[in-house]
Amino acid sequence: MHERCLPAAPNWYCSRCSDVSGAGLFGFGAKNIIYLIQVSASTCRVVGELVGHRDLVSSFCFCPHTEQSHICVSSSCDGTVRFWDTETKGLLKEITTHQNPVSAVHWSPVDKNLVVSGDEKGVIVCHWFNTGDSSSFFPEPRTVFCLSCSPHAWNHVAVGYKDGMIVLVDVSKKGEVLHRLRGHDDEIHSVSWSTEPGESALCSRAEESEEGCFLASGSRDQTVRIWSTARGKAVMTLKLPYLKKRGSAVDPGVKERLWLNVHWPRGRGAQLISSCFSGELLLWDLLRSGKPKWTLFGSSSDAQGHNRIIFNTSSFVTSGQSLLLSTSMDREVKCWDMSSLELCWTLPALGGFVYCLSFSPLGSGTLALGVGDNMIRVWNTQSSNHYDTRSFWQGIKSKVTGITASIFIPQISSSYHKKTIYTLAWGPPVPPLSFGSSKGKPAYSLYSCAGEGTILQHDPYQLNSEAFNIDKLIKNSNNIQHKLSPHTDLNWKPDGKVVAIGNEDGCIDVYEAPSLRLLCSIQQHHKIINTLRWHHGLSPELGCLLASGSSNAIVYVHDLKHVLECPGDSAVVITEPFRRLSGHTAKITGLSWSHHHDDRLVTVCYDGTAQVWDVLQEAPVCNYRGHHGNLLCVDWSPVDPDVVWTGGKDFTVHEWRVSRQEFDKPPKGMEENGGSQGKKKKTKAKKSSVTSSLKKKKPRSMLPLSTSMDHRPKDELLQDCVTLASVTHNGCIPGQGDHIHLGLFSDREALRRMFEAEEEGHLDAGHFESVVYLRLWSGDLQGALQLATERGELNDHLLSLAPMAGFSVWSGAVDAYVKQLCLQEQFLKAASHLLSLNKLHDAIDLLRSHKLYREAIVLVKARLPQDEPVLKELYQSWAAVLEKDGHFSAAAKCYLAAGSSFDAAKVVSRKNEASSLRAAAELARVSGETALSQSLSLRCAKELALSHDWSAAQDVLRTHDALLVHRLHFSLAELLSQFLSDAGVIPAAPGVCSGVWRSANGPIAFQERVERVWGEKFGVSRSSGGHCSVKTLLQELKSVENPQPTANVQLKQVLLSVSLHLTRAFLSFLSEEEVQTMEELWRAVSWVKDTGHFSVFSELCHLLFPDGTTLAALQNSSAPLSAAALSLQSFVHYLRLYERWWSFPVLNENGVTQNGTEQTDTEEHPDETAPDLGFDATILLCESTAAVQATQRAMNEIQDKLSVMVTKHRAQEQESEEQNGDTTHEQDTALTVACSFCPQSFPRPDVLECCLLLLHFGRSSPAVSDAVKRQSKDLLQQFGTTSRHQKVTQKFIIT
User: Which of 695, 20, 771 is nearest to 323 (CA)?
Assistant: First the structure.
């Protein structure tokens, strides 16, 4: 229907609002319409629209399968998903499964029938196009921003949410979540799958690229992330670069200016396209090393790219050339060549109503458009580039509603209209500007007509001067005293001799220039004049025709030739038109005469059509119906007699040919926006009902009976006048019976009788409030208060009047009102009224009883002495409530105000975090609660130590001398943590070092290092006394309880417990308590071993006993080693035995390594010819220990058998219960530290395990002596009675 069209601008802030088919058909959503554009590498053309959605189009997608490429799907904020046929431009089906606005839709590239959509509440729906079935699921309670179906697996869908979460779901398993991809911290704008299967393109290890594929995501957090869908984690993060382009000063930290769209082109697995901050397009090379990884589209010229953020991109291949299409906030669609990254063409779009359009008289075919998006477009319609437009927006702060050609440089008038300007026109100047031209230049004036009804004349050479209101000249020239009707439009005759002005009352006045003397008044229209147009005058016979359009849908043409050629002394009134053009069904908004014809006129209307007329014949020529909304403007092409241009509220400008239109008349029964006449009537009826429901409700009459008597028939009302005049003669009684209403016009007694009758009527109707006011007006204040009290309808107004009846009445009314307010839960207001009676304690009790402690305390402190006992009670009661609700800080303030410092510190510490404990400890210290302060400081220090904030822990303990021993403990814990972290045994945790151990760095023994630092930093040594006495500190530390070690204890708690035992050991060593030293060292090592941290156990032994044979040096006497020392020595040797075995390549008879690990390093091994193991192995071969362990194993076997028997018995009794195997089998590996402890207090390693290890090691190493081998074999033969031990022992006994 149309030749060319400037479409509406694509919708903003939608993740997928445009798409392109393989055939080069590009579609995008603009408002509630989908525009279809046929694109190629050189040009584009709007070929149709898909109309049907009732709200904003939020997403659009073509079917990616060739056999269905003409079918597309769209979603909208109206909650529907619609399928369209782009060949017929018709709707195929509408899906209404969603109950909320739909935000995203995508057609599966794998399954030609699967379409997936998501809405703002997080509901995902799968639609099957062939069957019409659908299924919905709810993977996450979040707002869906975007989604995309996998191009490799039909059932995999990636969903991006507003809060930054990306979820991979399996639609074949009712929306089962495969992965939750966390990394973005703001809304997900776009997700795009790699078109290449597998993950080999970016992965270096083959095992990570066998399945899955990559997914790209763009977020408002300014990053692009590449995700591995097989592993469910990010493999690459790309940070957007800040490109200062076109002189812009955009701050990249302002996230509101960013929309990050990503697009993975087909066949380019290592290249990704993304948008940037200010409309730039970036091509990312994911395999490029170094920086930058991106290349800029259109880098050869700044004028090529978009100048605002980009929302959507899509690509296709045509004739072997890859093209990329992009839509932006700058309201332009651009096509890019992906090979050269250069711009191919630009399609401008409109973002508002097209209010006006006009061809320039200076440039052939140059069309100017005034648009509601605050921009002016100038379109060179004769250019080889069919959409050669320029946009002007600088200095425009509102919609452009009027436009006219100008030869002047851009200026802004200093005079302003009060409302919107609708008409601009050039014309000859009128007084006072016509008195002389400006500096000899040709005299022109610019006239503007605005919504307030005034027309201003502007001097274009001095726009900074004040504009002139021509109403003053009209009144003076025509001797008019009354107010002029507001003006709505004006149009100068081409010769500049007369001007026609349309008015709000439907009248058209024609004035002679320059005096503006009224020549005639056309009173044909009866509604507001919308548009006026003089004939172009190329034909002298028709040069005086004036066409006018108003809101009454009829176009009138008047021939003013006689009036203009022979003007009279007085104005002529014209009431009949020259021609009447009827057919439109709504108000006329625009007119344009054809310069190529004498009698052709085109009109546009709110019925959505444009009509071409043969004016002389009063006949319609053609009707254009290509727009989808009200039309606002029209102009006939100055270069082609068959072309007309129209614009309207559908945000479009159409070029169409008169000769190619299907219809010749406007559609019958059409109203505004294409509605029917019947629909208009229904709409009017509905509006009238809504208007009536919104009318202000008339208040109820206080005197309904007497008022109703005034609405009787006319004869009865006249009789009332006679009756009232003859009251004293006919004996009627005003104010009662049939004459109740006459009490208003008689004496007071009659008025009282009327009041009594009215009260009875109000009581019967239940209008007690009206009764109260009637009593109040009659002076019965006490009765009014009594009735209001009984009904519970006392109010502030009545209470303010109560003192007029006396103190007792007022006091009773206040008490009653307080009870009423309490029932209404207005406790503060009730307390305030009690204060008016000076019932202070009652007000306090009322507030306290309803837990308004804050207000009660304010009242007490403001009105009562400071030492009032009730104040402390209020604080304590409030504190109890706050503590129960978890508001510990506020509760502490209450306790402090009540003088309970101990309780305040206790309640602050209840949160059990470092900051709360520290504050509580300081509070207790300041308040003099020393014991409590020490306890809380110790708890705080432990929390800080667990978080490795060693400096803060020392600061907390430093305020109390009595906690010196705990400072020693935490200093040793810091040293131990630092050592294990440096050794790589435990991960390096972020923390704050206290700096205690800096002075003791270097190659120094652990024992000496601790002793030196304790002496220098803490003043603790063998000779220290007072609170630093070693024995005193040791006694304090012995009172500290330490839990039993279990496998569930966290490693950081293990280190604190181990450091506690080490602190006791070093204090015992300084106080020369040898046995105690050994026992604490054994407990420290045992704690680590029992919790299962073998690597920490190994490093701790190396730290404490570097050579493994210096245990005796810790005992100053020559007495034999204690039981603890022997146990400790045996475990150290046990560890060294394993280390010796691990570092030696032990081989079996087949020559295969048997050390349990693959030998990969090239460390130097001990000499194979070493005469011994480097330690005394016999300490591991204790016969008595072996006997005890054998007995324990036998007991365990008996217990296991009994357990199995009991389990079988229970299974027979309860067949539904599964058999519970309770035995625990030891692992057949030498790496396991399988230690079966004897029932003694200081157990040793498993003797039989050590025997087997020594024999196994001795087969290929001379380090194990024959005596040790013999002793090991003897112990195995004697105590290896279990079947497992016998089987393993047999091969060593035979050899």
Answer: 20
What pTM value is reported for the model?
A: 0.58
Nearest-angstrom CA–CA distance, 55 and 718: 61
C-alpha pair distances (Å), 1184 with each of 658, 1242, 1253: 117, 13, 19
Over the range 1274-1290, which residues count as b (16 or more CB within 10 Å of their CB) and which as e? Answer: ebbeebbebeebeebbe
DSSP letters of 571-630? PEEE-S-SEEE----S-EEEEEE-TT-SSEEEEEETTS-EEEEETTTTEEEEEE---SS-
Beta-sheet strand order (sheet of 600-605): 588-593, 600-605, 610-614, 619-624
CB neighbourhood size of 798 (10 A): 20
Q: Is the peptide bond before 442 cis (omega within 30 degrees of 0)?
A: no
Q: How confident is the model at residue 1215 (pLDDT cuts 50, 70, 90)?
A: low
Q: What's the CA gap between 725 and 1284, in Å, rounded? A: 133
Those residues with Cβ within 8 angstroms of residue 1247's Cβ, 6 or more apart along the chain or in another chain = 1180, 1181, 1182, 1185, 1186, 1189, 1275, 1279
The model's pLDDT over 313-331, given as tens digits with 9 standing for 90+, comes to: 999 999 889 999 999 999 9
Q: Where are the beta strands (DSSP E) in 615-721?
A: 619-624, 631-636, 643-648, 653-657
* pLDDT-based confidence at residue 1168 (cuts at 50, 70, 90): very low
- Separation of alpha carbons 1013 and 546, rounded Å: 108
921: which residues sit within 8 A by CB, 6+ positions away? 905, 909, 933, 936, 937, 940, 956
Q: Amino acid identity, residue 1064? A: R
Does 12 score more than 90 pLDDT?
A: yes
C-alpha–C-alpha distance, residues 439 and 1218, integer Å = 111
Q: Which two tokens stand for residue 620?
A: 């319609």
pLDDT tens, residue by residue, 172-200: 998 899 999 999 999 999 999 998 888 87
Spatial separation of the C-alpha atoms in residues 1291 and 862, rounded to whole Å: 96
DSSP state string for 158-195: EEEETTS-EEEEEGGGTSEEEEEE----S-EEEEEE-S
Q: Decide: residue 751, CB within 10 A, 0-12 exposed, 13-18 middle, 19+ buried.
A: middle
Give the 3-state secondary structure of residue 1076. Answer: helix
How many other C-beta atoms lie within 10 A of the C-beta of residue 419?
11
Instruction: Classify residue 89 by its DSSP letter.
Output: T
At 436, which amino acid appears?
A: G
Confidence of residue 289 (pLDDT cuts 50, 70, 90): confident
Biggest distance spanned by C-alpha atoms of the chain: 154
Amino acid at 269: G
Confidence bin at 207 (pLDDT 50/70/90): very low
Q: What pLDDT shows up at residue 1170?
A: 43
- Please name the amino acid found at residue 1087: W
